[in-house]
Here is the input.
Amino acid sequence: MHDQEEMSLSRRTLLAGAVVLGVTGSVLGSGRALADAEAAPKNMGPAPDLSKFQRTKVELLTPPLVHAHELRATGKPKVVEFTMVIEEKTLVLDDDGTQVHAMTFNGSVPGPLMVVHQDDYLELTLVNPATNTMAHNIDFHASTGALGGGALTIVSPGEQVKLRFRATRPGVFVYHCAPGGAMIPWHVVSGMNGAIMVLPRDGLKDRNGRALKYDKVVYIGEQDFYVPRDKDGKFKRYNSPMESFNDMQEVMKGLIPSHIVFNGKMGALTGKNALKSKVGETVLIVHSQANRDTRPHLIGGHGDHVWATGKFNNPPEEDLETWFIPGGAAGAALYTFRQPGLYAYLNHNLIEGVLLGATAHFQVEGQWNSDLMSQIEPPTPIK
Here is the structure.
């Protein structure tokens, strides 16, 4: 790396440390992480010349929607270009008007799902507008080196940065902001996380190596929020993210979320916001949880093929009722709907799924198959 580039990177990493110091008033010991300038690699050579590679620009969509992509790659590996804009914004979490100062990629919780194929290069321009108040970065669990890109992507308000990495491992992976020390969990549980899907070049396969396909993919990001309460037990509101930091830290240390929701708020994917499908349609459900373990379950259906830890090189499990996705990971499940009606997809810790909000609905159209299920007698008085 050139001296000028080293100085610029050191300034950004130290600025991230200054943000941490400004909030806590003390050095964070072993948690200082990216505040150390040496966290950035000093022996980097020049980026490889990819001028002969095909390039494609992708416009990201707001979850649960996912941008168009090939199920199986055609042609040679390419450079796939994305742009994400960091947005600090207020979110309303429930019908009671509970608010949180969220930190987001592209304005949504979770951030958009990015899809590439194995051996493609993902090239991301990360923009931190001057209207934001904090430094941010991005750590890709799918990437190799430099704290997942976190050491190379610290941007202050009014800056942007471009990162490129080769997607060498197929699967679904979490990405999140990781600006150092106590900032890391705070930014993650404030909504700053998402997922990337790296498809095998020849597509998904079952455990016997037979090709699998899907008609649509939906992305569900499970998010735990930690909203402080006042002395009367009511959720507090703050004028800025920094104003809420100390109170939120105390709630976070208790490890008990106030809300656990899908796609940013209670009801984001239920009722009139239900996901749509039809009998015979095969849906790939990508599910991420950047911080806590979760147990997805489709009430009325199953996981036909499930990569619970999200890694497509491993053979999928079949016919699962519930699967387990560890915190800091993303999983994928393939299901072909066989009956019409309403399906609930939820975290089967039922307290978290029903009471705290981690539930989605699929509204499925089609013809009922009475061979699969019938009501033989309706409810009647006991004889």
Q: What stands out?
A: Residues 109 and 264 are 5 Å apart (CA to CA).
